[in-house]
Amino acid sequence: MIDRFENNFRRVSVSAEHLTDAQMRTPKFLLLSTSLLVDRVFRYTQLIPKLASNGDVTVWTTSSADHVAESDSQDLQVAVEPFPKVNAFREFPHNYLRRLNEYVWDFRFRPPSRMSMMKHRRDKQAEYYVRALKPFARILASLRREEWLEKKLERLLLSYERSVEADRRISESRPDVIVSTGPFQFEQPAILNNARKYGIPVLAYVPSWDNISTKNRMVFDYDGYLVWNERSRSELQAFYPATRNRPVYVIGAPQFDVFYQDRFHRSREAFCREQELDPARPIIVYALGSPNFLNEKHGAFHLAQRVFAGHLGDVQMLVRPHPIHDNAELAEEFDKYAPRVRLQKTKNAGKELNKRTQDVRDVIEWVNTFKHADVVVNMSSTVTIDAARFDRPVVNLDFDPQPGQPDQELIKEVNHLWSHFKPIAESGGVWLVNDFSELEKAVTAYLKDPTLHRAERKWMVEHVCGFTDANCGERMAEAIIDFVVSVREKN
């Protein structure tokens, strides 16, 4: 496949006698990043070097001002620039109609994850005037008018200028392609109308395996798409009919490329010294998810108490907050259980979410946390795959650890109904536990025999990641190059 990409690009860039001036010029790639999860793909995979060997690369990132140093841009052969200022849509009519559009699609196709989220979160949190849209949405859904509505909405949203700065910079640079890595986020969709104005195609990268089935809709019709696996491609084409006539590249999960790079690996002794742990004792890693979704810290508190009291034997516990949502608010809660329990702390605490990023030290910590874990405990998150990549046993909570269990039904639905996580939860590759007693039994059993469920863990990685090599960043670059080639050939 690599030869095909390179031969296609060589055909376009070398056969000058058959090309227009536009086809002959060095291609320009503009990549957008508004998340640390994408920053680390840009900085620590072969994506940028591969693109840079075939053209000029520019990155717009929200974290550039306080993290992406000049030396980084030189190493990556890329011009790093701050993301342009972006204004929000008006609440009415723009956001109001966006909510209507989401309801219509949900009622038309009733995706399990979205309907569960509507029941347990959106209906409880949405303003009354937003919930008032539901009867109208049901009527439009019954009439199968979802595509008609979305096209009307797209035209309305594209007519609203959200970034004068982006317009100016795009008009000056005229890239051959813009790669949006956050099509479900606030900032990046604002760039699309500027790209359309100047006839610049936009590739949308779906940055995680759950985005299509859980996030609010991508209203805009992009010119091509990049996804992790075949299941994501099928979901994309099912929920976004226009994508059936667009190129959709399956590239794997580039963020996991770092797991295969020796430069990020450290010995158990070195890692434990950094984390103030004892390398001779088993390490239980409790990885917390987003507190904006589920309040799972109570599970970590309970296990910390049990580890501290010695009920699980001569073990230790490392609590890993979600890197995007760590605000250091848990430090005081866990410090009282030291030295048997440690809380990882990051420099991102207190920063705005889209300005957070991870430097080499953070990536080393991330990789080695799962490399040296003896058991990983979590609740229905992507760290399940982080652990499985290193063949580490995973215990997954199938109950609400909060007092009173207000989210018990939601957690059951995430594990057994949500389309992205149900295959993982029911694969046999994770140990589902229904209460704290089962949690302790599962952890103890895995500590005695870490080979339990090994084959199932391997299946989980293949199912989610699509490719289990270190070449996803390079594969992403090849897809972008192939896309530019196809656009130039058409023009």
Could you give the order of strands across the largest sheet?
Answer: 3-2-1-4-5-6-7
End-to-end Cα distance: 24 Å
Total domain modules: 3
Can you summarize the main beta sheet? 7 strands, parallel
Strand content: 5-15%
Report the CATH topology name of the largest domain. Rossmann fold
CA-based gyration radius: 23 Å
Secondary-structure arrangement, i.e. CATH architecture of the largest domain: 3-Layer(aba) Sandwich
Total number of strands: 13
CATH class of the largest domain: Alpha Beta
- What percentage of residues falls in helices of 4 or more residues? 40-55%
Mean pLDDT: 91
Q: Tell me, what's the shape? A: globular
From the helix content, strand content and strand pairing, which structural class follows? alpha/beta
Task: Tell me the CATH superfamily of the largest domain.
Answer: Glycogen Phosphorylase B
Poorly predicted tracts of residues: 1-19, 65-74
Helical stretch count? 24
Describe this structure in words.
The chain has 491 residues and is of the alpha/beta class. The chain folds into three domains: 2-87 and 162-254 and 470-490, 3-Layer(aba) Sandwich (Rossmann fold); 91-157, no CATH class; 262-465, Glycogen Phosphorylase B (Rossmann fold, 3-Layer(aba) Sandwich). Helices cover 47% and strands 11% of the residues. The chain has 24 helices and 13 strands. The protein has helices at 2-14, 21-24, 36-44, 47-52, 70-76, 91-109, 112-125, 128-131, 134-142, 146-158, 164-173, 192-197, 211-214, 230-239, 268-275, 297-308, 331-335, 360-371, 383-389, 408-416, 422-425, 436-448, 454-465, 472-490; strands spanning 28-33, 56-61, 79-82, 177-180, 202-205, 224-227, 248-250, 283-287, 316-320, 341-343, 375-378, 394-397, 431-433. It has a seven-stranded parallel sheet. A six-stranded parallel sheet has the order 10-9-8-11-12-13, with helices on both faces. Helix 19 (383-389) links the parallel strand 11 (375-378) and strand 12 (394-397). Helix 1 runs parallel beside helix 24 (472-490) and helix 6 (91-109) runs antiparallel to helix 10 (146-158). The two termini are 24 Å apart.
